[in-house]
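EI: anyone free to look at a 201-residue chain?
SC: sure, send it
EI:
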Amino acid sequence: MKIQILMILALLLSATLLAEPMPEFKLADEAGKSVSLTELLGKGPVIVDFWADYCQPCKQAMPALNSLVQSYDSLTVVLISIDAPKAQNKAKNFLKGKDYKFVTLFDPDKMLANKLNVTEPPHTFILDKTGEIVLEHKGFTAGVEKEYEMKIRSLLGLGAEKGHGCQSETPCADCLRAMNTEPGTDPVPKEGGASPCNGCR
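SC: here you go
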């Protein structure tokens, strides 16, 4: 009994640690206007991605992040450059003509980055609309945007998207829900087709 209580307490503690709020900030945008965290919240989930002009994985992540922001109207993507003041023009020039739908901010003295223990970009945080950090990821490899999308859809109260890439040998929980099938029973697709996940077999 004591072990069970300790396990429950440990789970509650870990959940509390995961739900830390993003520190309030005010950072300059490309035009020099100050933008606060409060101004960015309330509409829906927010992706905060720290990047630098010298960081190639950061630049590789941008099209994937842009695809997400174009897919979900209530999503805001904020790119925060940690380039030194002398390198800010390079960062601005890189973004010119890209037509990315991002809010671009600058943290040249790394005050916010240091508060969040950001040492190497890219370093990504997903916030709920109240500013709680619900996901943190360091680095970028192709495909991680699917993890971001699943978290975003969860925050928006949406189910897993059809063909989200599940590789389960049997239909996953999202497939079962989409097929109105209870776990532990044989799944029956609505229209005699495959499961909603392209990868489920």
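EI: Helices lie at 2-18, 37-40, 56-71, 88-95, 111-115, 144-155, 173-178.
SC: 👍
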